[in-house]
């Protein structure tokens, strides 16, 4: 198919524009092959863009070069330029930074000898190579992977007026419901339709197709595009080729046959000898028809008609003189190019494309003699295109609908036409929703950044954005040897104890240069851990607090393999960062690079005082900032050594001119000598790369010389000249309105949001188009085209937003368009709150209700407080002291956003407001838990505030700086937390770190998570809910706890080496003491008896048969003993045969069925005994498989046993089998695809529960064999599953501490009832019999912790008081060693 200008003869290597093909490319000798002209300016906040918004020239014609050409020319370019730096603050990336297409992760994080650079923790070794490279900072080895949650409907139409009714109904009837469908699932659905009745379309030149293809290319880069094609019996106007190769043109003209046709061709085409090979270019229409640019409607209309007639004459000549092969090469229409560039270029896009194929009936074909040669050619191409579409598209996506022809065309006054439109709406809705469901399912299934073995997926996503920017900007930083050597010596110097500060003016190349340093550091120091952040690149890097949080988290994972609780404040993060490295005996070299500190907020400067502290051994810290900034002065105050500062030098005149040439080629693919001479003269005033970028872009877009280059003397005048040009070409009022909205928003606006806002503005309304707001869609595409390298895509939460790329451009734009923006703020506020006056059909705002879990609600939660604060001066009472708002924001946005809102309200000073200070302190203590899942909001608030508002009388407790009188809101929040509005776990008594306890000196938070173990096992009673029994091996204690008071009811001390415990009845228990089984009476604390014999040392398995007997694996593991609990004697033994070694033992709760594993036989069988009849029932085997008997479970009544199994010679994941023990047959077999880590079975619930290595917990139906529920919340594999007495609720947790959260699930409907994340890891846990409570034993804490499941009922209500044993023994302590 064709491209914008002409078609290449080799149709397999087509570009968007023939100018971009090697055959028509301008001759240049330097900088021409700079693959990614990524001298990229960073967005406001000194951050780099995550993706470009699409550059007009690139969209119109990207330069297609071979890899060899690029590499050779790039090498030559670097050799020819003298050493300098090219700033990431200056030039745009040519490809999207954070939204690059995914690749398979196969790179290695290892050194050249194939070994890991140092002893990585197990959790890191379990990660994929790509994740390891991200964490280790191996930029060059990381494969770019990033997807965004955006879907675009791209409308292709042969001619706007032909399908105005169909397209109008798509916008107004189909799109709104589909948009809501996507929003509920967290996705943005945008619709792009440029085919409206406009002057741009009617001109029939190459401006319109270039705009269409540029916009299409922009969306293909960053979103899932669904082309919706409206094509019937016409291709629309055929465009004249923009370029024709010299040989083809001259050969054709020689054969034209008449002088008039020859003169016509030569009049409109001129030879361009600068191209290689040379070509003939179509002259601008205004060359011979100047009124085409007239502002007078009448003159312009006549000029357009004249051009149409001229174009038809030229086309007629071309059809005569060009052979069929060249006609296919050079002649095309807009819709052909759109179809080719999206549907025919990608099978994936073709698979989700829809073709609305309208077929008119009762229409008479014109006589063959009356059909012109142009129409015949169009019909030929139309038939070929439709045949190809039928081959490429899915059959059900071709909506072929018949409709009766009427003389007045398609009109809603005809009943048949209304019926046709209704059927089209129905089919479009159905097919599009099906496609959307497939895209969302595929995207979520293949989500790249899932937490794995505790390593946070959101951290990996952040690191990928940072890495992608680093990869791009490092490509365009020429080597500055002296500065590189200075930095290399700094990193390698073991005596260094201070940071290195790289400084220079904005745009001098700090970002690109540091990107190069980061990349080269991996080869300089292969064992080094490299952690880097570009400030402002993402929300997680836009504040010092967020920077230190992610940096500390990354280092924690690398050094310890897990993340642990740290209060969310600068002091604790910095202290823990240094403490981590200081605590290691032989730490690896750690390099931390933070670029762009000058973009921090002013109130954060005072938090930089830690820079004056001496760095830990082997830590190197490099920071950069602008030398004229306030933060630079603050850094100089904290670091008084001049040797710690390194300056960046400006570009030389020669390098600046070379860079200018490269920039022009990047944007326009050609250099007019006169224009370049004028631009080069401007370099005498300024050589900043950003200045050069602006000049080059102006030269590429301002083809008519509307910008006076001679008047540009500095960066500000260059940028303002660009804005002046925009206002002249795109109408001043429209430009002002749009840029004011972008500048006023908190972080930028999504495409769909911006289109909503423009559609509701009278500025963009017209009566010419079918939908009056249609010009807004066209204008948005034009703005992106004109501001290509200065706008970017950025990811904020789940939203993909448009924002400024360059901080300097952003500042000037805000000063010019948003200095007095009260009206714009009110407009944005009304939009996000859903209170806009009037509605535009098709652009209705997404429905958003309180607590709605959709993407628009999240955007509302992010934007509304920001605008209200700037309008009213405060959001404290309306939002921060509004429990409903707080809960909604932490649940649907982020706890970190709430903390940022508090910083916005107080500008960092909380000393004057105790109530707000307490809220801030409580949130920073709960931040890690609430970021895990904010549904524990009330539990966290209650657990931390109880020490403030219900303090204990213990004298060692420090006095509280907060009182109920000073903190009325927090007192109210504490009271509401006791009756939570959402299901929650509430701790009965304080055990979390509260605001009072956390004030003062910094703690060693890593050691808190390694506290002493007081609980090795917690076991519930057979019936009672109020009491549990704990066992502590090291302390030789067994304690009966009252779970409500969390106090011991009985204490048995001096129990010899207790390892395991089973409850016999209300008072008795059997305890494995060393290798012996002892019976104790828990009520009176007495030792009852010792069972005869000694247990196997490694496999001391035992279980209860009834209240008088126990079964235990013998010492030699060759048989099972049935022991009498009264006498301690062995009653009988169970034995299968000689030399059969058993390796497991489980007994059904009713004591009737015993199941053992046999490791002697190959493959391992399962042996099933009937304990009542005392005989072997089954010897269960699967050929070539063996049972992993440590992962097995049996139902209470002994009807079913489930066990994990694996194929002997297959290294793949294990799977699950279920046996019916009533018949001895294999009942079910499930292969979930990942290995099982824990398993449980419930006959009452009719299900099997298994925890997988990929963090999921699956619930399988015992009857149907289907997977009922996939329970997803944990960030590490679960290895503990506990069922309540009824088997309808399940407690899941990770005993290794990689994931500290305990979750309680309802197995009947697959919902998460409640969850809780303590500050430290637990060593034991249990669920109560009724499933309403969870009892956990925390490391470093001597008392149990009880979490009660509550919704809006008081913690202290609905509690049935129970007793344990005799009242006289209450609180009794027995020391068995003395008794």
UniProtKB/TrEMBL annotation:
Renumbered residue ranges of the record's region Disordered: 1-64, 77-112
Location of the NWD1/2-like winged helix-turn-helix domain: 712-823
UniProt superkingdom: Eukaryota
Composition-biased stretches (Polar residues): 12-23
Domain Nephrocystin 3-like N-terminal span(s) in chain numbering: 488-623
Amino acid composition bias (Low complexity), ranges on this chain: 49-62, 84-111
Signal peptide range in chain numbering: none
Keyword annotations from UniProtKB, A to Z: Repeat, WD repeat
Keyword GTP-binding among record annotations: no
Protein name: NACHT domain-containing protein
Organism: Allacma fusca
């Amino acid at each position: 198919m064709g491209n914008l200008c002409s078609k290449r003869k080799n149709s397999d290597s087509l570009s968007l524009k023939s100018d971009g093909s090697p055959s028509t490319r301008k001759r240049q000798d330097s900088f021409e092959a700079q693959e990614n002209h990524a001298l990229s300016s960073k967005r406001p906040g000194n951050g780099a863009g995550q993706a470009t918004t699409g550059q007009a020239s690139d969209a119109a014609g990207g330069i297609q070069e071979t890899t060899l050409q690029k590499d050779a020319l790039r090498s030559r370019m670097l050799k020819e330029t003298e050493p300098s730096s090219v700033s990431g603050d200056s030039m745009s990336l040519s490809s999207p930074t954070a939204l690059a297409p995914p690749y398979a992760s196969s790179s290695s994080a290892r050194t050249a000898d194939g070994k890991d650079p140092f002893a990585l923790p197990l959790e890191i070794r379990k990660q994929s190579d790509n994740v390891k490279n991200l964490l280790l900072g191996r930029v060059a080895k990381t494969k770019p992977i990033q997807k965004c949650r955006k879907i675009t409907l791209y409308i292709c139409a042969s001619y706007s007026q032909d399908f105005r009714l169909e397209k109008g109904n798509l916008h107004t009837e189909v799109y709104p419901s589909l948009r809501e469908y996507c929003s509920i699932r967290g996705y943005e659905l945008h619709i792009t339709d440029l085919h409206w009745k406009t002057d741009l379309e009617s001109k029939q030149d190459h401006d319109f197709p270039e705009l269409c293809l540029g916009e299409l290319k922009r969306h293909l880069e960053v979103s899932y595009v669904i082309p919706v094609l409206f094509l019937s019996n016409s291709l629309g106007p055929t465009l004249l080729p923009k370029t024709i190769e010299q040989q083809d043109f001259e050969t054709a003209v020689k054969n034209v046959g008449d002088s008039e046709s020859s003169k016509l061709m030569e009049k409109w085409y001129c030879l361009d000898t600068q191209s290689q090979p040379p070509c003939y270019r179509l002259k601008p229409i205004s060359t011979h028809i100047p009124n085409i640019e007239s502002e007078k409607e009448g003159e312009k209309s006549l000029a357009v008609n004249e051009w149409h007639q001229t174009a038809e004459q030229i086309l007629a000549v071309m059809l005569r003189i060009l052979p069929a092969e060249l006609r296919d090469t050079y002649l095309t229409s807009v819709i052909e190019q759109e179809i080719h560039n999206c549907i025919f270029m990608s099978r994936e896009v073709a698979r989700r494309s829809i073709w609305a194929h309208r077929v008119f009936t009762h229409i008479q074909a014109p006589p063959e003699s009356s059909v012109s040669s142009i129409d015949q050619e169009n019909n030929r191409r139309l038939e070929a295109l439709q045949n190809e579409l039928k081959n490429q598209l899915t059959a059900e996506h071709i909506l072929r609908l018949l409709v009766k022809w009427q003389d007045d065309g398609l009109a809603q006054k005809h009943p048949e036409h209304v019926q046709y439109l209704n059927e089209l709406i129905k089919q479009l809705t159905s097919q599009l929703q099906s496609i959307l469901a497939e895209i969302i399912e595929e995207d979520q299934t293949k989500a790249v950044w899932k937490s794995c073995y505790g390593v946070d997926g959101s951290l990996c996503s952040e690191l990928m954005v940072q890495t992608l920017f680093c990869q791009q900007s490092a490509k365009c930083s020429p080597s500055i040897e002296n500065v590189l050597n200075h930095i290399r010596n700094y990193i390698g110097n073991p005596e260094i104890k201070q940071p290195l500060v790289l400084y220079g003016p904005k745009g001098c190349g700090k970002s690109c240069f540091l990107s190069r340093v980061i990349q080269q550091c991996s080869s300089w120091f292969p064992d080094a851990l490299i952690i880097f952040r570009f400030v402002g690149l993402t929300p997680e890097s836009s504040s010092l607090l967020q920077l230190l949080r992610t940096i500390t988290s990354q280092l924690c994972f690398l050094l310890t393999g897990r993340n642990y609780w740290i209060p969310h404040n600068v002091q604790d993060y910095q202290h823990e960062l240094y403490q981590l490295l200081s605590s290691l005996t032989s730490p690896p070299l750690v390099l931390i690079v933070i670029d762009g500190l000058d973009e921090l907020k002013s109130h954060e400067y005072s938090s930089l005082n830690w820079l004056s502290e001496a760095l830990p051994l082997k830590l190197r810290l490099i920071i950069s900032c602008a030398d004229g900034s306030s933060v630079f002065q603050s850094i100089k105050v904290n670091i008084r050594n001049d040797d710690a500062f390194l300056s960046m030098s400006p570009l030389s005149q020669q390098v600046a001119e070379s860079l200018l040439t490269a920039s022009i080629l990047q944007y326009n693919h050609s250099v007019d000598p006169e224009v370049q001479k004028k631009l080069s003269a401007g370099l005498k005033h300024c050589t900043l790369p950003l200045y050069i970028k602006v000049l080059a872009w102006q030269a590429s877009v301002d083809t008519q010389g509307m910008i006076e280059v001679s008047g540009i003397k500095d960066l500000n005048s260059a940028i303002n000249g660009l804005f002046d040009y925009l206002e002249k070409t795109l109408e001043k009022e429209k430009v002002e309105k749009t840029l004011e909205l972008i500048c006023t928003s908190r972080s930028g606006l999504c495409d769909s949001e911006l289109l909503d806002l423009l559609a509701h503005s009278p500025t963009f309304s017209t009566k010419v188009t079918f939908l009056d707001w249609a010009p807004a869609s066209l204008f948005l595409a034009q703005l992106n085209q004109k501001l290509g390298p200065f706008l970017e895509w950025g990811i904020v939460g789940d939203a993909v937003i448009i924002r400024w790329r360059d901080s300097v451009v952003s500042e000037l734009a805000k000063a010019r368009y948003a200095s007095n923006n009260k009206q714009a703020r009110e407009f944005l506020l009304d939009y996000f709150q859903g209170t806009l006056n009037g509605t535009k059909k098709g652009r209705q705002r997404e429905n958003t209700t309180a607590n709605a879990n959709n993407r628009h609600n999240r955007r509302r939660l992010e934007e509304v407080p920001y605008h209200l604060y700037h309008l009213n001066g405060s959001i404290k009472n309306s939002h921060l002291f509004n429990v409903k708002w707080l809960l909604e924001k932490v649940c649907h946005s982020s706890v970190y956003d709430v903390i940022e809102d508090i910083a916005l309200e107080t500008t960092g000073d909380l000393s004057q407001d105790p109530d707000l200070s307490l809220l801030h302190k409580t949130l920073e203590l709960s931040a890690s838990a609430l970021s895990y899942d904010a549904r524990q909001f009330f539990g966290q608030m209650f657990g931390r505030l109880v020490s403030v508002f219900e303090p204990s009388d213990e004298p060692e407790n420090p006095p509280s700086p907060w009182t109920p009188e000073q903190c009325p809101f927090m007192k109210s929040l504490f009271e509401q937390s006791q009756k939570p509005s959402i299901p929650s776990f509430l701790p009965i008594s304080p055990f979390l770190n509260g605001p009072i306890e956390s004030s003062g000196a910094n703690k060693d938070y890593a050691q808190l998570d390694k506290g002493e173990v007081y609980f090795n096992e917690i076991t519930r009673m057979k019936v009672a809910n109020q009491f549990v029994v704990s066992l502590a091996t090291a302390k030789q204690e067994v304690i009966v706890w009252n779970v409500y008071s969390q106090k011991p009811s009985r204490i048995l001390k001096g129990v010899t080496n207790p390892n395991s415990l089973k409850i016999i009845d209300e008072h008795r228990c059997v305890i494995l003491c060393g290798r012996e089984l002892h019976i104790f009476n828990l009520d009176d604390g007495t030792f009852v008896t010792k069972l005869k014999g000694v247990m196997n040392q490694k496999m001391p398995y035992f279980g209860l048969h009834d209240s008088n007997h126990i079964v235990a694996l013998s010492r030699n593991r060759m048989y099972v003993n049935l022991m009498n609990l009264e006498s301690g004697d062995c009653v009988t033994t169970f034995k299968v045969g000689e030399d059969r070694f058993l390796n497991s033992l489980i007994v059904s709760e009713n004591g009737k069925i015993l199941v053992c594993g046999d490791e002697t036989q190959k493959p391992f069988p399962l042996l099933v005994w009937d304990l009542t009849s005392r005989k072997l029932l089954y010897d269960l085997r699967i050929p070539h498989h063996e049972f992993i008997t440590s992962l097995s479970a049996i139902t209470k009544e002994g009807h079913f046993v489930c066990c994990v199994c694996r194929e002997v010679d297959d290294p793949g994941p294990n799977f699950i089998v279920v046996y019916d023990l009533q018949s001895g047959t294999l009942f079910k077999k499930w292969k979930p695809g990942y290995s099982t880590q824990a398993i449980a079975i419930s006959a009452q619930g009719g299900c099997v529960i298994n925890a997988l290595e990929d963090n999921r917990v699956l619930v399988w139906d015992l009857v149907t064999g289907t997977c009922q529920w996939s329970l997803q919340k944990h960030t590490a594999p679960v290895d503990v599953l506990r069922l309540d007495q009824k088997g309808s609720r399940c407690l899941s947790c990770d005993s290794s501490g990689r994931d500290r959260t305990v979750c309680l699930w309802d197995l009947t409907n697959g919902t998460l009832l409640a969850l809780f994340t303590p500050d430290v890891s637990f060593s034991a846990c249990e669920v109560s019999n009724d499933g309403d409570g969870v009892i956990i034993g925390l490391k470093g804490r001597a008392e149990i912790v009880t979490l009660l499941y509550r919704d809006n009922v008081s913690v202290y209500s609905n509690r049935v008081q129970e007793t344990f044993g005799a009242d006289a023994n209450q609180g009794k302590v027995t020391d068995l060693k003395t008794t």
